[in-house]
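Researcher: Here's the sequence for the chain we discussed earlier.
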Amino acid sequence: MDPLRVALDMFEPADETEARDVARLRALTGADPWSRTHPLHATASAIVVHPGTGRLLLRWHPRLDGWFQVGGHGDPGESDPWEIAHREAREETGLVDLTALTPALDRRPVQVVVVAVPAAGDEAAHEHADIRYAFATRSPDAVRAESAAAALRWFTFADARATITEPNLLVLIDRVERASSTAA
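Model: Thanks. This is the structure I predict for it:
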């Protein structure tokens, strides 16, 4: 069975906009939805939480000039959004103990959203259909940025909300905070 389809089947859109985004992503599942050659392609990302302190980890994205969740594109041959988000989170944070934030969120997306990506260099403007998860770590001090340009920072949920301007990311943070309160 296709892991992307399974993930989408597990997800319940919260509103009409999210339902439309899921439908657009479902329409990609006949081709290679992860191919960066399509103007709309799948990506996978996650918010990492340290339940012991109630903080979440965000990554500085220089291209977007802001703090965002970790994650990104699938590598050739990858098709499981959970595995892609997990690999990307490990690579971008150095954290090797990442697990689902709660048992109920094991392999279950927290959010599915289509986001516009501006043109940069030789890359045309395009869209990401992002499948988003919530991970937990017990080792917040083990965090290591993959590069100096991709700084990492632990935020309280309140500080993250005060820093973030992207509306869909604020929705993700709210959902992860609600889920983390059940994990504590």
